Amino acid sequence: MQVSKSVQPLTSTSHQWSMNHILSSLPQDDYERVSSELTWRSLKVRQVLHKHGEPLTEVYFPGRSVCSITNMMEDGGVVEVATVGREGLVGISAVFGAPVATGEAFVQVAGEPAAVMSVDAFRREMDRRGAFYDRVTRYSQAFVNMLMQSVACNGL
């Protein structure tokens, strides 16, 4: 099988400290299983990963990259509501079962490639209720807490 330079299979040798924290924190057995569903994808600055209202087909686990999550206001203005780096994932809507992206996500700072998982594979892994589920759920709780704090601060 020929693999392009922009999309490469994720292997167990990729399991290193610089990788995404959710993935690198998995026990080895879980990581081995999950890694079979992941590919590496290079990211470019301003590359759109998800568009608001469009079907959510992939979840991104950034390495040393930073992605912005934005929301469009009624007047057409765009507001950054969150940033995601190697601590988390882009595609949080998939955690809650949403079929479409609820905001726009794009690359703000390009670093090492992201690990990418199809939404179908993501949902299957979440349904296992194992270590992957635990880490993603904890991250999602922290993400929502950060959004709540941000809203509270902006309100003051």
Number of helices, where a helix is a run of at least 4 consecutive DSSP H or I residues:
4
- State the distance separating the first and last CA atoms: 56 Å
Query: How many strand elements?
Result: 8
Largest sheet entry: 4 strands, antiparallel
Helices and strands in order:
Blueprint lengths: L6 E3 L11 H4 L3 H8 L2 E4 L6 E3 L7 E4 L4 E7 L5 E7 L19 E6 L4 E5 H9 L3 H25 L1
Antiparallel strand pairs: 1-2, 2-8, 3-7, 4-8, 5-6, 5-7
Question: Key features?
Answer:
156 residues; 4 helices; 29% helix
Brief synopsis:
By secondary structure, the chain is of the alpha+beta class.
Give an overview of the whole structure.
By secondary structure, the protein is of the alpha+beta class. The protein has helices spanning 21-24, 28-35, 119-127, 131-155; strands at residues 7-9, 38-41, 48-50, 58-61, 66-72, 78-84, 104-109, 114-118. The protein has a 4-stranded antiparallel sheet with strand order 1-2-8-4. The longest helix is centred in the last third of the chain and has 25 residues, at 131-155. It is globular, with a radius of gyration of 15 Å.
